[in-house]
Design goal:
Number of helices: 37
Number of strands: 0
Shape: elongated
Structural class: mainly alpha
């Protein structure tokens, strides 16, 4: 029993000697226990789906090749942020398991557990008591769920692993002054920086730790080795801030905060994060966005409280050096996310759980050290319950955190669940309403989609994306083109340089005869704003070819779209259709349709149109039939494909009954399909069903009174036999 107790205390890092010379087996046991605990706590997230911007990180086919890997490192804008190490990691994962999201989630879990283990190792290197308890607090804390369950936040889990490994190597350098340890630490720091720039705070954190250990900082020993780190870190941080502002869009009225407003925001955000760390309940994917107002005196309480705490701790030095160091580490690591620099999510909320992933370590270490001091004070107490109380409290805390983390992870099983829970807790969450509306739109549930887009606009009337999405959904409904145009125009009043809204407006105006002439101007403006917008070239080409008959210009625009994105299957199929209108370019059209279907075999129209080109060609009837059948497998309610397939089958004696069934299906799906009625009538006549034939000839004429072929066929049917 005493040996078991000593081993447990060694694992928790509370041995009185704190010499760190532990047996390897307790370390291995603890590592396995840590990984198992993380796996059990985060199990629901392991089977989660793609969230918000995950597809932009892990589904980019154009970056999946070796050339794509080169672009990740050499081309600014190839990825959302210039974090080449992060996207190299995603690239490697994509080579291994492609789009299977469970792999990405598993890596996040392992990285989180590894970071907890590295945190344990760093604290032991620093002789901080309660090291393992601190690591378990971090591993199981629900504030970390957003970082671990959200694939995009692999930037957090991976960068923290590099950050802590770099810190551990630098602490080794502190003792040995070995160039090998220094270069290892620097290399790991650069990897951390190129994964997420919040790790630029590491050199300052190391200086705080060194000051905590020794009470002083010397230029030659302490500052000079870290000067290159500081220069590189500041440069990386400023570069990321520039990218956020100029390329991602963290600029404009939503970010227009004065210096004093930013001070208020920083104080309140720091207090908010501290509160969630201490009492992690009501955690939300997107928190309500605060109104920052210097005229409200209560808002000044937050920065004043932080300032007062730092002053009091400084005055009480050296007794409170450990607590002051912990607060400096916490606040300093949080600094990039406190509002002094614009980050894109501020448009929705000024705070997010993943912003304090790195910073939380400092306060969790402080809590664990305080607990370890309590445990040591109670260890020799004669009453058993007093000796056991610290351990029981620690276990209870960890169990509660693990259960809460497990519950929190359930929110991340799929994006719809996440947005629904977010709306329950934050009813005016603009992003959740907008994105949930997009989910319903993709399902074809226009009523639900429109409801959520309107809710988003009620919460924020200046949300251009919701105006554009609402317009797009209205555009799908018959007779609501003008309403759609109004919303596209509203989106452009909010954001005049909004390419997607401009493109949607151009497409919708093309459907309104009185405003059709305005379309070309809007198409050209989109292309001036976004010269690499392949969809804009495709849509402009459709308008030029189908509406205006300007075939040569349309072909040029399709070629431009395909030059930008050779895998753009829809544009290639449209290009093929435009080529097919020229009798001399039928072969090119067939080749383009074939290429389009290789890129995306699920294009229903492309199968049908390719079959239409193949059907009249000698010896290619079976190919045509196979493409009509492919179109109908994809869309059994495609009346034109039923009619076209029947036209081919009717000439195959063994399949005449199938032809008749497809004609019947075509007119059942489209009762106003005059050509199919006429073809069905002919098939009935050939089968001797003259009454049915007469009925369908008359239906064809009723639907299309000018259908001369149907009139002639009816006259022949009714003519008396000679």
């Amino acid at each position: 029993m005493p040996m078991l107790r000593r081993t447990l205390f060694q694992l928790l890092g509370v041995n009185s000697k704190a010499d760190g010379n532990f047996s390897v087996w307790p370390n291995i046991v603890f590592g396995v226990f840590l990984l198992l605990g993380v796996w059990l706590a985060y199990l629901p997230a392991l089977h989660g789906g793609m969230l918000w911007d995950d597809a932009a990180h892990v589904m980019s086919l154009e970056l999946s090749s070796l050339k794509g890997l080169v672009r990740i490192w050499t081309q600014l804008g190839a990825t959302q942020q210039y974090y080449p190490t992060l996207h190299t990691m995603f690239w490697i994962e994509h080579q291994i398991w492609g789009d299977a999201v469970v792999g990405y989630h598993a890596v996040n879990l392992v990285l989180h557990a590894a970071s907890a283990g590295l945190f344990w190792a760093v604290l032991r290197e620093l002789r901080v008591r309660g090291a393992a308890f601190a690591a378990l607090l971090f591993a199981l804390h629900p504030v970390c769920v957003e970082s671990v369950a959200w694939i995009s936040e692999q930037k957090n889990t991976l960068s923290l692993a590099f950050y802590l490994a770099s810190a551990l190597a630098y602490l080794k350098f502190e003792q040995s002054r070995s160039p090998r340890h220094y270069l290892s630490a620097l290399g790991l720091f650069l990897l951390a920086l190129s994964t997420k720039s919040v790790t630029a705070t590491l050199p300052a954190a190391l200086l705080v730790v060194i000051w905590w250990r020794r009470g002083v900082l010397g230029w030659a020993r302490d500052w000079r080795p870290l000067v290159p780190w500081i220069v590189v870190g500041v440069g990386a941080g400023l570069f990321t801030a520039w990218v956020e502002r100029t390329m991602i869009g963290a600029a404009g009225a939503a970010y227009d905060l004065s210096v004093w407003m930013r001070v208020l925001l920083a104080g309140r955000a720091a207090c908010f994060y501290l509160g969630k760390l201490i009492w992690p309940v009501d955690l939300i994917f997107i928190y309500p966005r605060w109104t920052i107002d210097p005229a409200q005196l209560w808002q000044w309480v937050f920065p004043f409280a932080w300032g007062l705490a730092l002053v009091v701790l400084y005055v009480r030095l050296p007794r409170q050096r450990g607590m002051l160091a912990a607060l400096l580490l916490y606040g300093g690591t949080l600094l990039p996310a406190l509002g002094f620099f614009n980050v894109y999510p501020f448009v929705y909320s000024y705070v997010a759980d993943h912003f304090q992933y790195h910073a939380s370590l400092a306060l969790l270490a402080l809590v664990a050290a305080v607990w370890a001091g309590w445990e040591e004070g109670e260890r020799l107490h004669p009453q058993l319950w007093r000796r056991l109380a610290p351990m029981l409290v620690a276990v209870a805390i960890l169990v509660v955190l693990a259960v809460q983390t497990h519950r929190q992870s359930r929110q991340y099983v799929d994006v719809e669940t996440l947005y629904r829970v977010t709306i329950e807790r934050n009813p005016n969450c603009v992003l959740a309403h907008n994105n949930l509306g997009m989910i319903y739109a993709l399902r074809g549930d226009s009523a639900a989609a429109i409801t959520h887009f309107k809710r988003a606009l009620e919460a924020n009337p200046n949300f251009a994306e919701a105006e554009d999405n609402l317009g797009g959904e209205l555009a799908k409904l018959p007779g609501r083109e003008r309403e759609a145009v109004e919303h596209f125009e509203a989106a452009l009043r909010i954001r005049p340089d909004f390419p997607m809204a401009l493109l949607n407006l151009a497409n919708e105006l093309a459907l309104i005869p009185s405003r059709r002439a305005e379309s070309e101007r809007h198409f050209l403006r989109v292309l001036a704003l976004e010269p690499k917008y392949a969809k804009a070239y495709n849509d402009f080409a459709i308008w030029l070819g189908s509406t205006l008959g300007r075939q040569a210009e349309a072909l040029n625009r399709y070629e431009a779209a395909l030059q930008l994105n050779p895998d753009y299957a829809v544009a290639r199929a449209n290009y093929a259709f435009e080529l097919s209108r020229d009798p001399l370019r039928q072969g090119e059209a067939i080749a383009q349709y074939t290429a389009a279907l290789v890129a995306d075999p699920a294009q229903v129209e492309a199968h049908n149109n390719l079959a239409n080109l193949l059907a009249p060609m000698p010896g290619r009837q079976l190919e045509a039939i196979s493409h009509y059948e492919a179109a109908l497998r994809l869309n059994p309610r495609y009346a034109e494909a039923h009619n076209n397939l029947a036209n081919q089958l009717v000439g195959v004696p063994a399949r005449a009954a199938e032809a008749l069934a497809h004609y019947e299906q075509a007119v059942a799906l489209r009762p106003d399909y005059a050509e199919a009625h006429n073809n069905l009538a002919i098939a009935y006549a050939n089968a001797g069903r003259l009454g049915d034939a007469e009925r369908h000839f008359r239906l064809a004429i009723k639907v299309a009174p000018d259908f001369q072929a149907a009139r002639d066929n009816l006259r022949l049917l009714l003519a008396p036999n000679p």
